[in-house]
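Newbie here. three chains, one complex. Structure please?
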Amino acid sequence: MMAKDMETAPETLLDIRNLSVDFRTARGRVKALRDITFPVRKGRIMGIVGESGSGKSTVLWSILGLLAGNAEVMGGEILFQDDDMLRKGPTAMRATRGEDISVVFQDPMTSQIPVLNYARQMFDILYRRRNMSKSEKRKAAVEMMRKVGIPDPDSRIDQYPHHFSGGMRQRAGIAMALLTGPKLLLADEPTTALDVTMEAQIINLLRELQSDLEATIVLVSHNLGLIAELCDDVVVMYAGEVVEVGTVHEIFHNAQHPYTRALLECDPARITDVSSKLPVIPGDIPDLTKPQMGCIFASRCQRRMPECRTIEPPTAMRPSGGYANCHLLEGPLRDPDWPPPLDVLTVRSGESAVAEKKAPDGTPLLEVENLNVRFRTLGPVKARLRGVADPFVDAVLDVSIKVRPGETVGLVGESGSGKTTLGRTILNLQHADGGSVKFEGQEISNMPEARFKPLRRDMAMMFQDPIGSLSPRKSVRALITEPLQVHGVKGVDLDREAERLADMVRLPKPFLTRYPHELSGGQARRVGVARALALNPKLIIADEPTAGLDVSVQGEVLNLMADLQAEHGLGYLIITHNLPVVRHISDRIAIMYLGRIVEEGRASEIFSKPLHPYTQALVEGVPQPDPDKRLTHVAVKGEVPSLLNRPKGCDFATRCPYAQDKCRAEKPAHELRPDGRSHACFFPLH
Amino acid sequence: MLFYLVKRLGLSALVIVLVVLVLFSLLYLIPGDPATIALGPRATPEAIARYAAKMHLDEPVWKQFLIYISNAMTGDLGVDVFSDRNVTAVVADRIGFTLALICASMGWAVLLGVPLGCLAAVRPNSWLDRITGVLSVGTIAVPSFLVSIWALLIFAVELRWLPAIGAGEPGDTMDQLSHLVLPAFAVGLSWVGYLARMVRASMLEVMAEPYIRSARAFGLRPRKIVYGYALRVAILPTITLIGMGFGGLISAAVFAEIIFARPGIGKLIYDAVMARNFPVVQGAVLVATAMYIAIVLMSDLLIAWFDPRVRETL
Amino acid sequence: MSVKPSEPPSEKDVGEPPIDSSGLPEHASAEEMRESAARERREKLKMFLTNWQGVTGLILVILFFVTAIFAPVFATHDPNALDIPARLSYPTLDHIAGTDQLGRDTYSRILYGGRVALKVAAIGVSISLVVGLILGMIAGFGPRWLDNLLLLIFDTVRAFPTIVLALATVALTGPSLAIVLTIVIVTSIPQYARVARTATMTLRNTDFIMAERSLGASTGRILMHHIMPNVVGPLLILAAMDVPVVVTVEAGLSFIGLGVLPPTASWGTILNEGYLVIRDTPWMVVAGGIPLILTTLGFTFLGEALRDVFDPRMGKGR
């Protein structure tokens, strides 16, 4: 579906001009938004893209007057239907909310009231329609639920939010937002909390609804792929300012601003050359409690000039009406060779040169064979009472996987795939119900803790929540050296070790005295790496190593891990659902669905020639940061089935576009091909 | 839902049995002959013999326990040692006064405390909020038996606005009500503060939840958001805490009955203790405990009624 | 507080741009960080001092400790010295708070009563806290059956309103301070244990405990090093709020004759004697009640202020 051209110049529905917002915080006044200006044209989808601290969500809340109590609008106007939203009285504002302007929220699990069913919630939203009877309201609500793809809406509308899965809840949220037929729909990271396959469905849904209802949408996201898939126009924000505005094609194919350029280059979904390090924008956003001089991006820009720090960058207009603020584009410092063609990298990639990776060899560090992990769902008494014969779920079913020294194996799966359980079982934190786990040839599954403890020195884990996985009342130094204390390593100067490890992960020494809540996500991750390295492990299992990190900085952690691997011959098992990242860093990839491995092979092959339909769905479902490569149709429908309700036959048959009768009746076994790839499908794609 | 009810009832019954067990064991843990202990050093040998016979003290301990339990289930809680009346009858006489006191105290505390807490939460840091805050902490901190004494002093003794002791003439509602005012005020006062704070804290927490922001984004009226959405969720932990804090209410009620000489269960227990009338003590304590457990059970059921998630997990 | 996989560090509150909490850019110098930490400490102290409730509470608490410990120094008379001719007198210069029905100086008796209160509070709260902490951690961290068992025991104990348990016990054992203490301790343990248990259970499922286990840390180490430090804080604040309860229980039981026995001076016994002569003179109940109120108010204000400053999350009435 082609993005609409700006030439037809439709009218402007929402006009944001010179918006400035401050927040009064304990640290002082934070100038969160400065002079934000851009138009939103009717019938088009506008995307606001930015990383953490960019202020993109703040812009959204300003439109509806939903800013937090400590926010202060310092200036500007937001014009909507001849009214300035910033100066509207509370009653008038309330009349607009939900009626003319609606919101789809980020996390459907927390943004819907849990104690009222959907019918009630939707009646409440329609409270202004006094001429509608109750049954008419219900009809409208049910119709909207049907439109967003909720099956059996007439009975499901009486259910409570906790009866709906994540994807369904988001659909319900969209239904609630569209119920009153608003002129403008605001969407705050609408797919961030969803799985990849569900994300693709919601993207498609939004697209269809927008063209059906001719709605105008403002979409806020940090995900470049999502923006490229859906939007017609894009605003790029950095540290509270707009740095570039343009159509989606202009931004993705002809970015003018150095930050936009850098952002695109850092996105792993765009990077085709997987052998080099991931690019990174070094540094951090500036302290917004201090006044900013010159260009906001100057401190991190690769092309900065002395004037950039002192003089405000001029605005270079685009013929379509967009603009970008940069000295390189306009004025005396203009550089006619900027921007360079798309294949030239403007950002540095990592801090050191690409280290040569030794080819993985030798006996596997980790060898998992036919591993099974079951969880009990009901106590024996209750199970008997309810007539449930087998009150268990198989979280991990017949999984086999290998990691060799110096190799990175990526374990990919969505929620419910069992990947985290697998990681925990390998580390003996979870009881295994069958199969074997061998470390360096030695069987370790269900080993008693006393015997297993020495092996913990060789196998370390990095956890998903960087700050949450650190004990809150311990200093960084204590945390890093704790492994040494736990294992009673003698004759070591703990302080020296702490400093050595901090250096290894490139964490400045002053951080050793800090506490976890004083660290940023990236810093906390590095502490996690340091802890994992403390005892010189041979294998590291990393659970979502890039969760919570901005695209422009996630490269730092990943490059660090790659360097360490090259230096020490570490093996990595990376558990993630982030496909672009895993493609970049893995040698081999295993795909998990509902507790089973459905495909395994070399990373490049998995992506270029997926064998299993689910793999194909994942690979194709990732939103590409290129508006020319939009997803044309969504092949995979429905949701991941619940573990409690494992389908008969192939687990994926309920959603597979190629499913045949055989698939629905029998479970396919693992098949190992001569080329080293394996899969579990009756009708592989190649 | 049914399963939940059954489970809770079962648990409650278990707790009551344990309570009786504890009372029984207290009797036997103390060295000496149980009859002598129960009746005190001045009891006559005949009284001891009568008591021993009535309490089946010749039987093994566990049998006595079982006899007591089975009797209790049929409503026979033993016999008052001094008056020879059925303990059940004695208790039944007095329970009405205690219930009236508890209901009145809790009633006015809820009627005043919950709205105050709501209003304070909706207007944080306003003068209303600050005053409510200080008063809440103040009323929680002051011991309720002291409030009883001082209320008695000021309103009954010095000012003579209200009667000091007793529960009033039977049949004369106005008189009974006037006797209820001071005790209910004293017992309920700390609860006003407690409830106001609880509701305020709960409301503040709920109002910060994302789904409240959603409600605002949909343009719902402020009153609907506060009472229909926020309070509906915030009331749940409040109900739990009321259930848990009820023990304190009963304690305060017992003191109030003693101080105002109100003939309720509390005073009954106290007098029986002083007179070493152990069967009455045992029976009345059992009833008081059962009352408390029943109230906690009701509060749990109320919560299940309000919160669909609770209903289903059980 | 888990971070979802593809989410950037989110703007948690609509208001806060998520720069790291000290507001310093990543590569700040050690100087700047020390300054920032010091600034934070000063902020907390300021917060506490400007909270008039906290300051008042602190003053009252200090007053309580000082007068109780140094009672002999502040007393004007021997608390047990009889002086029948001067009985039931109103406050005079000689007897600052008047005399009771046996002519004893009320003011001095109040001071010595404070000692009883202090003893009960100190012993009662500390034992309850320690036992509650241990039981709560065990219940929260150990196997399910143990948790259920402990919960059942706690529920049973809490099923008794304190006074009722006290009455039942004293019916058999006779009144004494030791019994009061025991009852106070036994009925207080459940609340400490509950808080400790809830805190432990919350922590048990966090990533960092999982991380410790993946290191190989033993259960004992986890409990001592990682769980206890995070649990003790709320318990200490609970203790501050519990002192008024404990003191009140002692006073209440002594008031109805089940605790401290005359002639020992306790705030409860003073009130008891005052109640008996309430129609003759109001002064004794007033004088006996004032120290009780001041102490309970003091500890409550202090506890509230501490909670506001150090653990705002806890101020949800839990």
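Moderator note: Chain B touches chain C through 61 residues (CB under 8 Å). The two ends of chain B are 7 Å apart (CA to CA). Thread marked as resolved.
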